[in-house]
Amino acid sequence: DWCDIEDLIGTTIRRFGKKNTDHIIEVDVSPDLPLIQADFVLLEQVLLNLLDNAKKYSPTDSVITIAAKQEADSIVMSVQDQGAGIPNDELVRVFDKFFRVRQDRQIPGTGLGLSICKGIVEAHRGRIWAENRPDGGTDLYISLPTCKYAPIMEAEDEAK
Ligand code: ATP
Ligand code: MG
């Protein structure tokens, strides 16, 4: 199916917002992103998992930023938080089934969220990875390939 990233992010945030009142959500989506061939509901699941982590592993009232932009042949989405980050030598292992960072074991969770995200993203021929920002906090990135002949959604006022 053709999936509109702006719609995907909007829908995800509305759903997430219903159970979230303790973080500030900022959205930064580039205009005119091409549609991508992807399953809307599965990608929504991925973003909800990343937002759930950002909320769980960062302080109340801090900012969570969800962004999307185009790069060469892909769309890169990110969820950034202002939490304590992930130990550098565990940035890859957090995507393993049942893996949890030691210091987070008092926080409820099964360690499955990110491994499910990875499975879904890779099924779309995409990549998912985590980075710590030098100023603190974690960035979770997803890159999904764009299609050479993807239709572009036209803004309504341009269509006149
Ligand atoms: P659940 O299955 O409910 O998602 P979980 O959140 O523990 O449980 P994952 O989402 O797979 O499992 O995350 C794995 C581990 O990675 C977490 O336990 C946490 O230690 C670490 N982690 C994930 N996201 C973040 C983040 N945004 N900031 C800091 N640590 C994180
Ligand atoms: Mg999780």
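^ magnesium ion complex. The first helix runs from residue 5 to 17. The mean pLDDT is 93.
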